[in-house]
Amino acid sequence: MHLENRTERKVLAKGVIEAAFRIGLIAVLVFLCLRVVAPFADLALWSVILAVALYPLHLRLAERLGGRHGVSATLLVLVGLVVIGAPTAMIGDSLAEHAQDGYRALESGSFEVPPPPESVAGWPIIGERLFNSWSAAAGNLPAFLEQNDQRVAALSKVALGAAANSAVGLLVFVGALAVAGVIMAFGAGGDRAMRRILVRLAGPTMGVTFQNLATATIRSVATGVIGVAFIQALLLGVGFILAGVPGAPVLALVVLLIGILQLPALIISLPVIVYLWAAGDASAVSNIAFSIYFLVAGMADNVLKPLLLGRGVDAPMPIILIGALGGMATAGIIGLFTGAVLLAVGYQLFMAWVDAPEETGDGDQADGDTSQQP
Predict the structure, then answer these.
(1) Residue 40 lies in a domain
(2) No. of H helices and E strands in the chain?
(3) pLDDT tens digits for 213-224?
(4) Are the beta carbons of 272 and 245 closer than 8 angstroms?
(5) Max CA-CA distance within the chain?
(6) Residues 146 and 217 placed together within one structural domain of the fold
(7) N or C: which end of the chain has fewer CB within 10 A?
(8) Domain range for 177
(9) How far apart are CA 315 and CA 216, in angstroms?
(10) Does the predicted model carry a pTM greater than 0.90?
């Protein structure tokens, strides 16, 4: 008996050592694989997000083209590149032209800063300091720049860094759009492969549920956050152009960005309304009409977002919104999607645990809504 116990312990120890060795090898392999794919993580995530969001449109277009998925995906990628590239090129050219003109005027000494209105001094907290700095720049700009050369240099570095990051982000997005086209062209096979993986990890029922939930959440965020921001930018941009507001395309881009950041578009539309009335170039009727239009368009997200965000998702709209905002705060724009998906999946797991039937001592399941039997 003692010999048998020693033999069993030796076998058990050998099995534990072999299992630990295999787990260690797997951990090292996973770590090395993650290091290899880490530089392409953003590109891969954006590609999957874009493919999932555009896949219904791809299917409809492919059906109209006689089932040619490759042609449909190529057309969507080309249209996306034109939609993204054309406004970006126009805005970049406009900004570069204004920067060159400002630099030439600054070099020639013809650049002038208009004096601030007296009302600026009455602004709370920053009014007096802003009025004094603005007055100093208006009175003698070269001396003001020389006196604040370190601050100007720091602001220039921040601006250049932001411009470089924006350019890199745009290139990553364009590359992700191209990769998303390939994913959409082979979408059926990718869908089956992902389902097999999730079923293996979470089981036949929960694996399919998680896949459907992640897909619906990505599409909901794409329409409820980015879609609403794009609609607002389009509405306000058209209004800015019709009203003759300077820099209308740039302002529309700013509206798009602050809409994605979940800030109210009134941050832009209200100052534009003030500008219209201060400029006095149009009639009172025109100013009233544009003011009403800018107010309505600036608050359109309050109506559109509850209608679109969380639509078709088996999770409450506040869960999706909190996940999107929290994800964006921790991981940037891509966190809009990853945060919403993670919180939606976590909500489903929590509710599945809450709704799971409890087992009584005799092996029967106790229902939450018990009724007394006579």
Answers:
(1) no
(2) 15, 2
(3) 888 888 888 877
(4) yes
(5) 105
(6) no
(7) C
(8) 48-185
(9) 10
(10) no
